[in-house]
Each structure stands twice: as structure tokens, then as C-alpha cells.
């Protein structure tokens, strides 16, 4: 099969819905065999059935990215099913809790940072270890426009997503000489279960976000997945350590 990811084995976290599920469809269409990881087994199983029913190669591993043993199992699933791990999309994350910093419970900070930062840390380290044994690879981490600019009443989310940018740069600098590229994407407002629930709780917020976005709309998950696919592909072979905004121009203004 021809495609930007032809012949590659990819691990995708946060794969049961939204950007992660879109990535599973985009990556397989582009020729990759995929291992899908998230905490929701039913959704993973259904998506694997969908993909394999179309003739694509796919497997899943139920994974909580905050648990190193779970991440080890996800990486092992790629090796056991497809012989290696070439690329990884670390996309699992939690959304912003809307509250002023001085009123926010510490448990909210802990939960968001645990998934959005420690989860990416857990995944990146273990993926790199496997890629070193395989001669190289590529990783894309999901940050956010909240990792490039600050927004009010979402401090733990903003902190965690800024930290993903730093983690990405550190890993890129450390492993470039070993043939491993590490980049990040910074999505803007993207249609997903989480965003739809937020829109329902905050009537009018979607219109406000559209007004702040030069393209004037919400992204579809596939649009974000396409950017990740390019960064993971050999077409981006001289790109490492960057955080690519995929935001309809939001960070321009």
C-alpha cells in the first residue's frame, strides 16, 4: 500500500475517540499498521474491528498512560503483533477545568498534569527505548494552543501543555543523533466528545472561539490527524523539535 506511512508500525494513545480515533483511520489509510491505546476497551475493540474489516492491520492495548506498566504493554503489543515500533502519536489527554487558580482544588491539578504531562513522559521514554533498538523512529506529542498561549481559568491545562512543548524539545535534542525525531502539534478547537460537552455547558462559547480564529470554525479531528501523520512520515525527515500549530490561525492573533 502506498501512503505517507506505508510499511510503518504506529502506536496511538487516546485512540478511542476524537483526534486519536481519527488518527487510527488516517494512519491506516496511509499504509501503517496501528496499535490503539486508551482506557476504554469497548471503543478500542470496535475501532479495531472497523479497521481490520477494511483490510487494515490493527490491534489494541487497554492503557492508562499514567501507569508505566500499561505503557510497557502497549509498546510490547506493537512488537508482538507487528515486529517493531516505528512511530508513535502520544495523544491521550485531559481537558481544562474551568476555575480561577486560587479556588482550584489540588486534585484537579494533579489529575490533569498526571495525564497530560506524566502520561506523555511515560510514553515518550518507553517508545524511545524501543526505537533505539530498532534503529530510529518518530514521535508526535499532542500539546495544544494552550501550550503556546495562556488562557484564563485553565491554569493546570495550560501548564501541562506548555510542559509537553518543553519535553518534546528536550527529547528531540537528546535523540536526534540516534535517528529519532520528536515533534509536537498544537491543535486549536477541534470537534470531539470533550469539546461538544464543553460547548453544551457554555452556550455561545463556540461562537466566541470562532470569532478568535481567522478561519472562523472548529477543526475536524481528521485535520489534526493529517498533520500528525505528516510529521511522523519520512516526508518530514528534517523536522524535529518543532511544535506545529494546527489551529486555523488562532495563535496568529
From TrEMBL:
Pfam families listed in its UniProt record: adh_short_C2
Molecular function in Gene Ontology: glucose 1-dehydrogenase [NAD(P)+] activity
Domain of life, source organism: Bacteria
Domain Ketoreductase: 8-188
EC numbers, comma separated: 1.1.1.47
InterPro entries listed in its UniProt record: KR_dom, NAD(P)-bd_dom_sf, Sc_DH/Rdtase_CS, SDR_fam
PROSITE patterns: ADH_SHORT (PS00061)
Keywords: Oxidoreductase
Protein family according to the UniProt entry: Belongs to the short-chain dehydrogenases/reductases (SDR) family.
Protein name as it appears in the record: Glucose 1-dehydrogenase
Amino acid at each position: 500500500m502506498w501512503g505517507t506511512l506505508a510499511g510503518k508500525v504506529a502506536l496511538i494513545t487516546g485512540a478511542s475517540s476524537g483526534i486519536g480515533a481519527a488518527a487510527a483511520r488516517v494512519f491506516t489509510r496511509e499504509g501503517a499498521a496501528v496499535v490503539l491505546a486508551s482506557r476504554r476497551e469497548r471503543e478500542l475493540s470496535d475501532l479495531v474491528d472497523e479497521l481490520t474489516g477494511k483490510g487494515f492491520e490493527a490491534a489494541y492495548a487497554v492503557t492508562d498512560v499514567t501507569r508505566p506498566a500499561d505503557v510497557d504493554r502497549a509498546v510490547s503489543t506493537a512488537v508482538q503483533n507487528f515486529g517493531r515500533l516505528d512511530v508513535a502519536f502520544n495523544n491521550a489527554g485531559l481537558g481544562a477545568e474551568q476555575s480561577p487558580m486560587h479556588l482550584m482544588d489540588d486534585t484537579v491539578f494533579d489529575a490533569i498534569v498526571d495525564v497530560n504531562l506524566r502520561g506523555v513522559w511515560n510514553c515518550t521514554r518507553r517508545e524511545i527505548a524501543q526505537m533505539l533498538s530498532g534503529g530510529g523512529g518518530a514521535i508526535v506529542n499532542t500539546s495544544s494552543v494552550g501550550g503556546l498561549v495562556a488562557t484564563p481559568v485553565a491554569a493546570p491545562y495550560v501548564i501541562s501543555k506548555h510542559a509537553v512543548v518543553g519535553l518534546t524539545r528536550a527529547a528531540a535534542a537528546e535523540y536526534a543523533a540516534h535517528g529519532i525525531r520528536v515533534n509536537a502539534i498544537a491543535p486549536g478547537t477541534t470537534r470531539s466528545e470533550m469539546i461538544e460537552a464543553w460547548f453544551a455547558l457554555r452556550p455561545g462559547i463556540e461562537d466566541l472561539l470562532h470569532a478568535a480564529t481567522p478561519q472562523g470554525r472548529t477543526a475536524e479531528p481528521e485535520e489534526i490527524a493529517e498533520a500528525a501523520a505528516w510529521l511522523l512520515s519520512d516526508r518530514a525527515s528534517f523536522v524535529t523539535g518543532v511544535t506545529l500549530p494546527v489551529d486555523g490561525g488562532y495563535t496568529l492573533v
